[in-house]
C-alpha cells in the first residue's frame, strides 16, 4: 500500500483506534477482526453483510432453503460423500459391480474409448479403508471450503482437481488403473493452501498433512497413485489462485473464463497423453 503507517486508511472505520490492513471485499473499507464476516472469498464489513442479506430473496419452499447461499449447509460435500458410498456399495454387488468397475474405473490405455472415466473414477474406491480415509478427509475439509467458495466454485474446483489427477496418471503412469477421490481431495488441500495464504493464515499444519500424504504415496506396496495426488494438488492450487485474484463481483465473467481455461489446458494435456500412448 502507498499510505504511510499512520494513515487513517489503515484503521478500522468503525473502531478508529484499531489498526488493520484488511479491506472489505465489497466496499473496500478497512475493518478490524471484530468487524470482519467471512464471505465467499475474503471478508465483508457489517454494512455490506446487511445489504447482502437484504438482497437475498426469501425461499419459496423448504427444498430451496438448503440451497440459499447463506444457509451454511455443505450440500455439495454431503452429496459427494453419499454418492461415493452408494457407488462403493454397487461396486461390490455380484453383477452390477462388474459394470460399475468396467465403465467407471479409469484405465489410461482406454482413455479414448472411455473418456468419462477420468471423472467417474474419482467417485469409486478400491477397499473399505480406501473410501473411509478419503471420505473422512472430505468430511473435514469439504464443508470449510464449500462455505468459503460457494457451491458453484466448489463443484468446479472438485471436478477439475479430479480430472487433473487422471490427466497426471495418463501422462506419468499410463499402464496404471486408478480409482479414488484422492486427486480431488488433494485439489481441495491445494486450494485451501492458496486461499489461506491470501487471507494471511498459517499453513504449517496443512503443509505437514500434504507432505505426509505425498510421502505415503511413494511407499512401495501400498499401490497409491501419487501421480493423481500431484495432479490434483497443482490443479486445485491453480483454480484457487484464479478465485482469489477475481474476487469482486465485476470480475465474475473473468473468473469463469480463467477457470474454463484451466479446464481447456487439462483437456489439451489429456489429448497429448492419448497421442503419446498410441505412438
Which key features would you list for this structure?
2 strands, 11 helices, two-stranded antiparallel sheet, elongated, Rhomboid-like fold, 279 residues, mainly alpha, disordered N terminus
What does this structure look like?
It is a single chain. With 279 residues, the chain is mainly alpha-helical. Strands 1-2 form a two-stranded antiparallel sheet. Strand 1 and strand 2 form a beta hairpin. It folds into two domains: 8-55, no CATH class; 75-277, Rhomboid-like fold, CATH 1.20.1540.10. It has eleven helices and two strands; from the N terminus they run ββααααααααααα. The termini are far apart. Helix content is 59%, strand content 1%. The radius of gyration is 21 Å and the shape is elongated. The model is unreliable at 1-6 and 59-70 (pLDDT under 50).
Offer a quick outline of the entry.
The chain has 279 residues and is mostly helical.
Number of helices: 11
CATH topology assignment of the largest domain: Rhomboid-like fold
Shape: elongated
Low-confidence stretches: 1-6, 59-70
Q: Supply Rg.
A: 21 Å
Q: Output the structural class.
A: mainly alpha
Number of domains: 2
Q: What's the CATH class of the largest domain, please? A: Mainly Alpha
What is the H-and-E element order? EEHHHHHHHHHHH
Specify the helix fraction band: 55-70%
- Spatial order of the strands in the main sheet? 1-2
How many β strands by DSSP? Answer: 2
CATH architecture classification name of the largest domain: Up-down Bundle
Mean of pLDDT: 83
Corresponding CATH superfamily of the largest domain? Rhomboid-like
The major sheet is characterized as: 2 strands, antiparallel
Proportion in β-strands: under 5%
Distance between the termini: 53 Å
